Amino acid sequence: MNGRKPVVLLLLLLWCLPAFPADYFPVAVWYGGGKARAPMLEKNPRAKKELWRKDIRQIKALGFNTVRTWIDWATGEPREHEYHFENLDVILELAQEEGLKVFLQVYMDSAPRWVGVKYPDSFFVSSNGAVVIPESSPGYCMDHPGVRKADLAFYQALAEHVHGNPAFVGWDLWSEPHVINWATPTYIPSPEFCFCKNTIAKFRTWLKKKYGTIERLDTAWYRQYDAWDEVEPGRMSTILSYSDYIDWKTFLSDKLGDDLHDRFLAVKHAAPDTIVTSHAASVGLFSSPLHWEGQADDWTMARQVDYYGTSFYPKHSSFVDRDVPWRAALFDFTRSFGYADHRNGFYVGELQAGFGTVALNVSPTVTPDDLRVWAWTALSRGAKGVNLYAYYPMSTGYESGGFGLIQLDGTITERARVAGSVARVVDRNQKLFLAAHPTKAQVAIVYNPLSYFIGGRQRATAYAGPQGEVAGIERDSLLGAYRALFPRNLPIDYVHINELSEDVLKQYKLIILPYPLMLPTSAAAPLESYVKGGGTLVSEARLGWSNEHGYASDRIPGLGLWKVMGCRETAVQTSNKGITKLRWTGGTLPGMNDGDLLPARWYEETLEPLNDTAKVVAHFPDGAAAAVVSQYGHGKTMMLGSYVSAAYVTRPSPETQRFYTGLLEWAGVTVPVTAKGGAIEARTLESGSDTLLFVFNHDKQAVDAEIGVRLPAGAYRASDLAEGQPVKTAREGQAVELKKHLGPSAVWVVRLTRHE
Hints:
Layout: H1 5-16, E1 27-30, H2 49-62, E2 66-72, H3 73-76, H4 86-98, E3 101-107, H5 113-118, E4 124-125, E5 131-132, H6 145-162, E6 168-175, H7 197-211, H8 214-221, H9 243-270, E7 275-280, H10 298-302, E8 307-312, H11 324-339, E9 346-352, E10 357-358, E11 361-362, H12 368-380, E12 383-389, H13 414-428, H14 430-435, E13 437-438, E14 443-447, H15 473-485, E15 492-496, H16 502-505, E16 510-513, H17 524-532, E17 536-539, H18 561-565, E18 567-584, E19 597-609, E20 615-619, E21 625-632, E22 635-640, H19 644-650, H20 654-667, E23 673-676, E24 680-687, E25 690-697, E26 703-710, E27 716-720, E28 726-727, E29 730-732, E30 735-742, E31 747-754
Parallel strand pairs: 1-2, 1-12, 2-3, 3-6, 6-7, 7-8, 8-9, 9-12, 14-15, 14-16, 16-17, 17-22
Antiparallel strand pairs: 4-5, 10-11, 13-24, 18-19, 18-20, 20-21, 21-22, 23-26, 24-25, 25-31, 26-30, 27-28, 27-31, 29-30
Helix pairs in contact: 2-4, 6-9, 12-13, 15-19
């Protein structure tokens, strides 16, 4: 117990400390002083202070209220306990003198050489035993006790240095967390990290906590270990069991959360009144927990800091130009983990400021309209901080010339002026945006990282294995239903499978469970309770085929959910070339007609009704039953025998869009905003007694938009948030209606206030 006292005392201390400042909304540009790209820093900063002042003044003149600067460990502590924070000091001085705040990005992946010299057993090790000797990155493994101590000491030294500085407001402790960052070891075939002795020791401790005894581990993994120090993480695919692989990847995501939390405690201990954040490279919607670098879980990471968030690069490199629903889905996914469990929102750690480059690959042009739409899209989902990457284009490296808000010679661009104008609106309405929170969603899509694990390591092999044909189906399944419903302008939550509970699910009228091949056993009870209490559950094929240990269910739907869904699987096959269709025959769903064809992917699962309320409503081309609706308790269910959501990404169809729209009416979902006039998107936030309305014209031509916002009875006054001018409204039934002529790619933000 004695060893735990310092940790307990620290936690008690933090409990008593003031809360992080909730009264500041940063809209920042990344700027480290001069033209050096992150995480590099220019030398001799004191001599360049007046030159940098011109940049700082220009950043403020554009409308930004914050500079997001950075520091790397190698520069900050070139020799042990010898700290060099001169660049940060100059930026802090300039910010204070010119009326800006400072946010600090910390890069530990660029680590000082002395760490490796002092701890020669701290290098990252791949699954094949290859050791990674750092170059400019990726640093050293934090699971080494000496590295962890030095790592946290650097954070604490930084926090002590800035504590009380009036210009300093907050941190991003970790940019785009992975086990290994910013290095691709091209000399290692199929790399995977980290298999060093320290990470393996930590894995064994994690396994002890999970299984308790070595005998229980042996049973789960189908092994014959006699002692914990014999246990090794799996390195290959075997035919008998892949629970070892699931445990390894789950451990890595938990470990990353622990690493972030330790860094959080280090800075909060010394600077408790600062905002502490971190941000993902690619949120779980677009990434796989199987990635070789060691992938973080967004919900786990969000629990460790004041705000967790995302990078946002819709035009990262050549041929990449993400469309409107893709961008909206990313921010709704980020909103979902940012506000889950009563959290306060999310940060956009990096928002692309200029065209992207990766070596010879150059992205489509980033326009002023892009920055206007991208920034307001993040704000319309309840972001609490937006940081544009970067002020100057990258001056070196394979991203050289890209991602800049202005030109490398200092020329101010029109997109810089547009981005600054958005920043100015937010800054003068700080309290309004800080208090804003998303309108409650009535529809949820279940995010289930376990769906990637069917087949275990075989699923992730370099040569793709026997399941290589379905690469990306997990992502497409999470996206397809969202895309189909996007034109309806209703908020959609993503709910993590591990966070399902009666309290979480009861707010939703419709829950969609895409690609649900593997489910944790704990998910069954809340799903059953949700439907029994009156909810509507729509699931796709092979629901609960396996549990979290990789064990197949004796009846599918598994985990007892066949009772809830009112049917069972009697046969299953992979469709010809992975493509099939469901022919609608039920007449049950609003908007669907007999004979309508729904494109689907991969499986054809034949379903058999099991009770008097269950009814077949669709068939496969061979006549087999392809979809069943049923009742359970006070609720209802629909079981689909294939993957309709994924197919909407690759083969969008009006029938599928009508299908998902029909689900809303079938489930009794209320749509909070209506929009007419073209490709109009309308979203709302609630801020105290006010409602914020965001209207986007995604057409390339002007439109006359008509918006209806469902609001409680009463009179409302409205004002244009950017121009400060009153906006005419009219009450039509349960909605307040507004009209506006919108130019191409225009964004209209309106504040609606109810009269007392």
